[in-house]
Design goal:
Blueprint: H1 2-15, H2 20-27, H3 31-38, H4 46-56, H5 60-64
Helix pairs in contact: 2-3
């Protein structure tokens, strides 16, 4: 499941044409954390997961790969 989250986050960021730095400023999450999540280096907290889901207007289940 973690790999799916990493891929979905990467796809959503690319579709929005956002750099790590730009997205981090818009959402209030460090760019290094975003990079780590996209590279599947560490797990995301529920608060950050919700923040990203709200920003991209998708469900947390979508981000986690539980739904399409």
């Amino acid at each position: 499941m973690e790999r799916k989250f990493a891929n979905r986050l990467k796809e959503l960021r690319a579709e929005a044409n956002l750099s790590f730095d730009k997205l981090s400023k818009l959402v209030g999450i460090s760019s290094s954390a975003l990079c780590n999540w996209e590279n599947n280096v560490c797990d995301i907290s529920s608060d950050n997961l919700v923040a990203l889901a709200k920003f991209f207007c998708v469900s947390t289940d979508y981000l986690l790969g539980l739904e399409d």
